[in-house]
Amino acid sequence: MIVLIACGVATEAHAADPAGCKAVRMAEPGWNDLAFTTGVAHVLFEALGYEPKSDVLGINVIYEGMKNNDLDVFLGYWDPAMVTYYKPYKEDGSVETLKLNLVGAKYTFAVPAYVWDAGVRDFKDLHKFADKFGRKMYGIEPGSNQLMMDAIADPTLELASWEVVESSEAGMLSEVGYKIKEKQFIVFQGWAPHPMNVSYDLRYLTGGDKFYGPDLGAATVSTQTRKGYAAACPNVTKLLTNLTFNVALENAGMGYLINDGMAPTAAGRKAIAANPALLETWLAGVTTFDGQPALAAVKAKLGL
Question: How many domains is the chain built from?
Fold first, then answer.
């Protein structure tokens, strides 16, 4: 009898988090990288027995939502791009930064590899090949290319006769694809993570620190939660702390959204299926909502 009771106690499962943590309320601003990473989180939480929900909202609305206890989790704090947005919530303590989830992001001028090989490796090299570039650089939507215009206006770069061709992300990349096919020179707004880094053999130019910041416009992305959430929902928080990404994974995942037209959760499932070893890290020390081992449960749910 004593043995039976002991066995029963050993196998009894308890909820990993309080009932109020079962609904995990997330949001993202409609950017493809954040749609993908939030989709991955959604798939994992659902497989663990939670009830995740994600909305597409403006950045200010996301922060106000966390401050007002209407949202729990935001996977997309880009630093330095969002420093100004986050500042008041950091100062009043209503939103907490939990963990870096991506390093290696960047945003600056890019050229095809053959242009790099020809000698265009730095901002200061552009004017030397002005005729080959047609004195043009290619940007995205109007209003999003000021840094390119600032570079043209900088007398030290000798680009005064150049112009910025504005269109859209899709329009710019269509031109990039054409120029690469024809082996013509082109310089454009490049960034990572993005599928362009998989679709094309690109190089990023040095020398743009004054405009884009150091290390090729380097940025990090962090996971944030509303005040007190980490302590209130420790199992959710353990997963969020483990949930880190890399540029290659996000390049591929964003490709599922942009090129294949997948929904974020479908893209998340596909990425997990293609990289099942990541589950070992992501689910270390995590349980299902009802207290069972996470790794076996998630693999079973996802058919892995």
Answer: 2
71 domain residue, yes or no:
yes
Give the Cβ contact number of residue 81 at 10 Å. 16
Please check whether residue 11 lies inside any domain of the structure: no
The residue range of the domain holding 293 is 16-102+221-302
Q: Quick one: tokens of 273?
A: 């299926």
**Cα–Cα distance between 204 and 202 in angstroms, integer?**
7
97 and 24 fall within a common domain: yes
| 53 beta partners | 25
Shared domain for 156 and 84, answered yes or no, is: no
Domain membership flag for residue 8? no
Which pair of structure tokens corresponds to residue 7? 């066995």
In whole angstroms, what is the distance from residue 295 CA to residue 22 CA? 18
Amino acid at 108: T
In order along its 304 residues, the chain shows pLDDT tens digits of 333 333 333 334 466 899 999 999 999 988 899 999 999 999 999 999 999 999 999 999 999 999 999 999 999 999 987 888 999 999 999 999 999 999 999 999 999 999 999 999 999 999 999 999 999 999 988 877 889 999 999 999 999 999 999 998 889 999 999 999 999 999 999 999 999 998 999 999 999 999 998 999 999 999 999 999 999 999 999 999 999 999 999 999 999 999 899 999 999 999 999 999 999 999 999 999 999 999 999 999 999 9
pTM score, whole prediction: 0.81
CATH number of the domain residue 41 falls in: 3.40.190.10
**Residue 267 CB burial class (10 angstroms; 0-12, 13-18, ≥19):** buried
Whether 7 maps to a domain, the answer reads no
Are 68 and 206 found together in one domain?
no
